[in-house]
Design goal:
heterotrimer, A alpha+beta (about 650), B alpha/beta (about 425), C mainly alpha (about 400), B: alpha/beta, Rossmann fold, 7-stranded mixed beta sheet, globular, C: about 400 residues, mainly alpha, two-stranded antiparallel ribbon, 15 helices
Chain lengths: ~650, ~425, ~400
């Protein structure tokens, strides 16, 4: 479709090109800059090309931006498409196509900064283009580099815009541009006022750009649009540095400066009368320096008192770069209002992230909640079942290239694989170790170590790709702040589904009844005709199978490696224990607590995610000490010990 | 007893003469080259490739007639990604196997573990990976990039070419990102970027929950400045990071990301179609166009398999090994001190064009390349500088700006130019 | 008293005899004694193995005798290593710094010295300030105290909280594992001030002993490790021999009954937990100067699990079992992963032991748990019971 349009444009443009002036000579004038462009200097070249007014310019600039321009050994530029060793070249003026050897040509690769400038230059050609995608490109270019000159053409193009979405976007952009660049103050203020409800990053950027300030220092406050006067004592050191930078005060001596000054003034092994050997005492050093300063040999020592006296003599202020007071007042008001909305939105986004993290923990732990919580069996290989599920997803994608189909095949298959693995493990190992929980823990550790290494031997230590289908690839965007990727939403839904499913199985089905019976009293259950061995096997298989499905989900959102299981195992156990063993609701509560807790700590210290994890674990340890039965503790006899 | 010993000596003489007549005349024993790369554990995936590369280089050299008339013999050990084991294996290589040179290590911590042993026993180590600098050992040649050969040029590219005004420095919490980010923070402040325009975040190894951090980065754009991300995120964690970037719809045109630890191999773990245009900085990309590189890739594929890719540390070993061979030939011996002296000023052509030179501070002068990720998982080289001399002590941190490393003239790796004294002769491990 | 203790525990004598003979043999054949049979690197391995034996004994006491499956004892081991490592790094760096500052025209102020040491140690992680945690690093005595006291205190607080809340069995195991994970994550952070992922390195260079060769130093450390192991063995054997030991074993077998008998179970458990943690700290302090480097990866939860694996394979509830387990598994591990084990060629597939050793270890562990709960030590029972039958 797009190439067809290209061809059409090429044909339309082609007719006059033969008769009119040609582009190649202009290109040759700037050959050096075109071949090796730099953002800082390419502007002139692009302007010259655009100013030629030739119809070929659009095509050339577009192709240049897409790295399709090739330069021949003799310096002539062509549009080219490479195929193996040969190159199909198109003359920039005549559109004559020929084939040539690739080795005679050099591909031009303008960098991102240059491409952005080209995009800006193309705006004037693309804004009214019949092709929707080109108009969108133009609008995106404006958004990336807003310029005053773009306001008029943008406004002119709004009325004629047929696409409703793009029209709205153009109107929004025109509003942004007006706020910054409109001729009269009323228009600007009107535009600024309308931004007070907009939480988008772009809108805030416009406001912040209007409100940029410069800090300064002087003996008296200057004329101008003063934003604020500052208290220099808030950060006295920094204020003094500003004073020094403004040449209003002498620089403060550092320890090194003092040392150098002292060294330069050694006379007969003494400095200002003090013996050299005493110079390891900082007080002596200061005394010696003061003595030198008194003698006028070195600059006066800037002590704290001197510094503070200098600071109080000066006015520190912030002045708006925007001279118009009305505009800055309006912008300040708008920004305040926007900031409040942003804070609310950020809180909402953090809540969403926490919810998502909680659902991931829940999904990873829910299989464990069944095997550990309901059956009381410790399975340290649970993480490896998650890994198995993820690798199943990877293997399925090797055979089924369609991502959508492969996911729907992988989910049940992962369940089946881990179900079988769980059943096998239960029959071979765990069955022999009931009533010896510590032994179960150790034996399953052994299995975990073996499985992890086995996965390494089969799949290698490198991460394997597990790609989500397109409909899960993007993000659900409420606004620029509140957004969450679809894959996380899918995990959330999956977690809810499993919660419902497990509650249903345990509470509403025959199997669930038997499971609960065996859990509470295996002897009595078996005398009622229930086969406890079979029930245990099925329950364990179910828990493992769910771990497999969780593996596919986790692999989709993060990574598939042989060590992914061990990333989740400790956290999963803590989720189950914190929530309260033996209760699926407890696991939900535990996951929620850990997820929200971790995000909360992260919010307090956003630059260190590792600290959040550490303190969350510590918190959980402490929590269990004070509430050993977890959040949702079973009551009565079922609680057991 | 005497009969037996005579018999033994005759036998060994016989063996010697056979070996001698077969290939090499005056050689008493093969020259041993130690290869100290993890073949198991978490670093195996990266380091096994380097072990294979070394075996290939040694095989090639033997085909050319060996070194000093002797056959080269690789002694491969496996330190199993276990840092104390690196020290143990290095000692074993130097004292039990008596190797003449060691090529090895990947992580900084493994290098720090090996350093005291190498210095104690006066060994020779070639270290092929980009690292954080701030170190200079008499016994180590650093053939990977120092910060000024990767981080600083990439930051310059952000400042000059992409016009980035606000920086997010994201890294995994370990020494390389910490030191690199410290250097960059100081560098950016020198360039007039305000402290509040630099956002720094550290995450654990293997981090998978990136939503909040990506949202924080997007929010940086709220004052209308161009935002750029400098990523020193290591290994697996990159997968989750790039997946989240793609899901949030952040294109390289809006917020460019330049990575220092992402190569061809890391990209194979994900679908790159949404990441086109994001950047990486290295001294080498497989897509570099030169005859030497074409030959190297062909030889590598023939040696190791058609599906294998080449990467930056492999090129570092390629240059380092060939320089060592030339230096030993010049010195006429494999004695560590003689070879070290002969190493200074050694030149060898880079695979990316130009010539690498071994400087007196044990670093190379190499060109810096910046590549854009393509849909096929390879890199499109869009910027290549001329050779940049590696700097052991960065000029952008006050404590190390006064330090200089010059083993040739000053005989010191930590020379304070202000006080004109040598701080220490051993390295700081 | 002494006689009855030895008479009750003939294994103690046998063990001490074996250890002495072994130490003597190793000393004779070491490089320091002029022989080349045992290289310095192998001597270091042997010395480290002795330290691992010591921590394994501690693990055996806490798990095999008292029934607390602690998955955190390697964390105490690591803390011991960090404590001694801080002094080693500080003192070594101080020597270097003072030496280089001597050339200055002005004698350096104490502040300048500290800053110079700081930038040497923390320059690696881009800082030069001394974190608070290094406050005592200048003093060998204080850091040696820390080797024992910090693990002891941590174990005391953790144990007091846990035992008080009656957290037992697998819950306790998971909690101790969480503690280990938290500690290793904490140490991984650069902000902690212990050089993050890089940890403390160059620990094999002992300040003040620069003139002594590594061959000799390694031998000294080997002797120290052997001495500590012997002492630890006797200490634990003595502690467990009397009535106290019976109570401890009773707690393992049925905690509730012991409590009903009027014993304050928590105090006994806390004592065992804390003492073993302190011994683990000492073992760590001897281990890491031989290893040369300590970093947070050493403390990762998997290390403590391996500790449990050694004890289980060696045989729980007998001190020599723990020693056997630690020696056999750790030496076999290094043999199999060291590349010296021959690959098995199956024709279609070549079994490389570097790849398959962990699979084998994991499965062996499962088999031991299932079929030989007494471990290798159980073989001694078989032999002795057979002898008894013959008599």
């Amino acid at each position: 479709m797009r190439s067809a349009l290209f061809a059409l444009i090429l044909m339309v443009c082609g007719v006059p090109a033969v008769t009119a002036q040609t582009l190649q000579p202009i290109l040759q004038t700037y050959a050096g800059e075109i071949a090796k462009p730099s953002r800082k200097s390419v502007g002139e070249t692009i302007d010259a090309i655009a100013a030629s007014g030739l119809p070929q310019v659009t095509v050339f600039l577009e192709q240049w931006s897409e790295k399709n321009i090739w330069q021949r050994n003799d310096g002539i530029f062509f549009v080219g498409t490479a195929a193996g060793d040969s190159l199909t070249i198109t003359d920039v003026d005549t559109e004559a196509k020929t084939t040539a050897a690739k080795s005679d040509f050099k591909q031009l690769k303008p960098n991102g900064g240059v491409r952005r400038l080209i995009g800006t230059a193309l705006v004037q050609f693309q804004l009214m283009d019949p092709d929707l995608s080109r108009r969108e490109t133009a609008v995106a270019s404006i958004a990336r580099r807003p310029e005053a000159a773009q306001l008029a053409p943008l406004l002119a193009s709004i009325d004629g815009e047929v696409d409703a979405n793009l029209k709205a976007r153009k109107t929004q952009l025109a509003n942004f541009l007006s706020a910054s660049f409109a001729k009269n103050t009323e228009d600007r203020i009107a535009a600024i006022d309308s931004l007070s409800t907009d939480t988008s990053v772009e809108a805030r950027a416009v406001l912040n750009q209007i409100l940029t300030t410069t800090t300064g220092v002087a003996l008296a406050a200057p004329e101008g649009n003063i934003a604020a006067t500052l208290d220099p004592m808030l950060d006295a050191e920094q204020s003094y540095t500003a004073l020094v930078d403004a040449n209003l005060a002498a620089p403060k001596q550092t320890g090194g400066d003092i040392k150098k000054a002292l060294e330069a003034n050694i006379v007969n092994g003494r400095i200002a009368g003090f013996p050299l050997g005493q110079m390891d005492d900082p007080m002596v050093r200061q005394a010696a320096y003061t003595a030198l300063a008194d003698a006028g040999l070195v600059p006066v020592l800037i002590t704290q008192e001197v510094r503070d006296a200098e600071l109080s003599k000066h006015v520190f202020y912030k002045v708006y770069d925007e001279p118009n007071v009305e505009v800055t007042i309006a912008a300040e008001t708008a920004r305040k209002s926007a900031d409040n909305r942003v804070a609310t939105a950020q809180f909402a986004d953090l809540t969403l992230d926490a919810l998502s993290l909680a659902s991931i923990f829940f999904l990873a732990a829910i299989g464990l909640a069944i095997t550990f919580g309901v059956m009381g069996v410790i399975n340290m290989a649970h993480g490896e079942f998650i890994m198995m599920g993820a690798y199943t997803g990877y293997v399925v994608q090797l055979f089924i290239p369609n991502y959508t189909v492969s996911i729907f095949v992988a989910l049940p298959l992962a369940f089946a694989v881990t179900f079988i693995a769980g059943v096998v493990m239960e029959r071979l190992v765990i069955r022999r170790l009931y009533h010896r929980p510590l032994e179960t823990l150790l034996a399953t550790f052994g299995i975990s170590i073996a499985l992890q290494q086995l996965a390494k031997n089969v799949f290698g230590t490198q991460a394997r790709p597990l790609t989500s289908p397109d409909w899960l690839a993007g993000a659900w965007v409420v606004n620029d702040i509140i957004q969450i990727s679809y894959i996380r939403i899918a995990i959330f839904i999956l977690a809810l589904l499993f919660l419902g499913l497990i509650i249903y199985i345990l509470k509403r089905t025959r199997l669930g009844l038997e499971v609960r019976a065996v859990t509470q009293n295996p002897g009595m259950a078996s005398s009622m005709g229930i086969n406890p061995d079979r029930i245990n096997m099925l329950t364990f298989g179910l828990g493992s199978g769910i771990a497999g499905i969780a593996g596919v989900a986790i692999g989709l959102y993060a990574k598939v490696t042989s060590e992914m299981g061990s990333d989740y195992i400790v956290q999963s156990f803590m989720t189950v224990v914190v929530g309260g063993v033996g209760n699926v609701w407890g696991t939900l509560a535990g996951a929620a607590m850990i997820g929200f807790g971790q995000k909360g700590i992260e919010w307090l210290n956003p630059s260190n995610t590792l600290a959040a994890q550490t303190y969350m674990i510590l918190f959980v340890i402490l929590f269990i000490q004070f509430r050993p039965k977890g959040i949702v503790a079973l009551k009565g006899r079922a609680a057991g010990d | 007893m005497s009969i037996r010993s005579t018999l033994l000596s005759t036998l060994s003489a016989g063996v010697l003469s056979v070996a001698g007549s077969a290939a090499l005349a005056e050689c008493a024993a093969p020259i041993k080259v130690g290869v100290l790369h993890s073949l198991s554990g978490s670093m195996a995936i990266s380091e096994t490739t380097l072990k294979d590369a070394m075996l290939m280089l040694i095989e090639q050299q033997n085909a050319k007639g060996g070194l000093l008339g002797c056959e080269l013999e690789a002694v491969v050990v496996d330190p199993a990604s276990d840092w104390p084991l690196f020290a143990e294996k290095a000692r074993e290589l130097l004292t039990v196997n008596e190797v003449d040179v060691i090529f090895g290590n990947w992580t900084s911590v493994s290098r720090k573990s090996v350093l005291p042993v190498i210095e104690e026993l006066n060994g020779l180590l070639f270290y092929p990976v980009q690292y954080e600098g701030e170190e200079s050992s008499k016994n180590v040649f650093y053939t990977g990039a120092a910060p000024n050969q990767q981080a600083i040029p990439a930051t310059d590219y952000f400042l000059e070419e992409l016009g980035v005004e606000k920086f997010a420095l994201l890294g995994t919490d370990y020494v390389y990102p910490r030191t690199t980010n410290n250097i960059l923070e100081s560098y950016l402040k020198d360039k007039g970027i305000a402290a509040e325009d630099i956002f720094v975040n550290y995450t654990p190894f293997g981090q998978s929950d990136w939503a909040t951090i990506v949202a924080d980065v997007v929010a940086l754009g709220e004052d209308g400045k161009q935002v750029g991300v400098i990523s020193t995120i290591n290994g697996d964690a990159n997968i989750g990071f790039y997946k989240e970037l793609a899901a949030a719809g952040i294109s390289a045109d809006d917020i460019p990301v330049v990575a220092f630890s992402v190569g061809e191999e890391e990209l194979s773990g994900l679908d790159t179609s949404n990441l086109v245009g994001h950047l990486a900085a290295w001294n080498y990309f497989q897509s570099a166009e030169s005859d030497a590189n074409t030959d190297f890739i062909a030889a590598w594929k023939a040696f190791a398999g058609e599906e294998r890719v080449t990467n930056d540390p492999m090129e570092a070993h390629f240059i380092g090994f060939n320089m060592w061979v030339n230096a030993a030939t010049e010195a006429g011996t494999t004695d560590v001190d003689a070879v070290r002296t002969a190493m200074y000023g050694q030149e060898y052509p880079n695979l990316t064009g130009g010539t690498a030179v071994m400087l007196p501070n044990h670093h190379l002068a190499k060109p810096v390349l910046i590549g854009e990720i393509q849909a096929d998982g390879q890199f499109d080289i869009i910027s290549q500088t001329s050779e940049v001399p590696g700097d052991a002590w960065t000029d952008f941190l006050p404590a190390s700006a006064v330090l200089k490393s010059d083993w040739k003239e000053l005989g010191c790796g930590m020379y304070n130019v202000e006080t004109e004294t040598c701080v220490q002769l051993t390295s700081n491990y | 008293m002494e006689r009855t203790f030895i008479a009750k525990n003939p294994s103690v004598l046998w063990f001490l005899l074996g250890l002495s003979v072994f130490t003597l043999l190793v000393s004779i054949f070491s490089e320091a004694a002029g022989s080349a049979v045992i290289s310095t690197s192998f001597l270091k391995t042997l010395g480290k193995t002795l330290c691992l034996c010591l921590v394994a004994i501690a693990m055996d006491v806490v798990w095999g005798y008292c029934g607390i499956l602690s998955l955190g004892h390697f964390a105490f081991f690591g803390i011991g290593g960090y404590a001694i490592g801080m002094w080693l790094m500080y003192a070594r760096t101080k020597d270097i710094v003072v030496g280089s500052l001597e050339n200055n025209i002005l004698p350096p102020t104490p502040d300048e010295v500290t800053t110079a040491i700081g930038s040497q140690i923390f320059g690696v992680v881009g800082s030069s300030d001394f974190p608070l945690i290094w406050a005592f690093s200048h003093s060998l005595t204080l850091q040696l105290l820390a080797v024992v006291l910090v693990p002891g205190l941590l174990a005391l607080v953790f144990g007091w909280l846990a035992f008080r809340s009656r957290v037992t069995g697998v819950y306790l195991s998971i909690l101790t594992q969480a503690m280990t994970l938290a500690l290793s994550l904490y140490l991984f952070q650069n902000d902690t001030g212990l050089r993050g992922n890089n940890g403390l390195s160059g620990l094999q260079n002992i300040p003040g002993l620069e003139a002594v060769s590594q061959a000799t130093l390694s031998l000294w450390f080997f002797w120290a490790s052997a001495f500590a192991l012997g002492l630890g063995y006797v200490f634990f054997a003595w502690m467990l021999a009397g009535k106290f030991g019976s109570v401890i074993r009773a707690i393992r077998d049925n905690e509730t009954r012991v409590r009903f008998l009027g014993y304050h179970v928590e105090t006994y458990k806390l004592f065992i937990f804390t003492t073993t943690a302190m011994i683990a700290g000492i073992a760590g302090a001897l281990y890491y100067p031989q290893a040369g480097i300590i970093n947070p990866a050493e403390i990762a939860p998997i290390a403590s699990i391996y500790l449990a694996v050694w004890v289980a394979i060696g045989g729980r509830g007998r001190l020599y079992g723990a020693v056997i387990g630690a020696v056999v598994v750790s030496l076999m591990s290094s043999w199999f992963t060291g590349g010296s084990a021959p690959d098995i060629n199956l024709g279609i597939y070549i079994v490389k032991w570097t790849d398959w050793w962990l699979v084998l270890l994991g499965l062996t562990f499962v088999a031991v748990t299932l079929f030989f709960p007494k471990g290798i030590g159980g073989l001694f029972d078989l032999i002795s019971s057979r002898q008894e039958k013959q008599q």
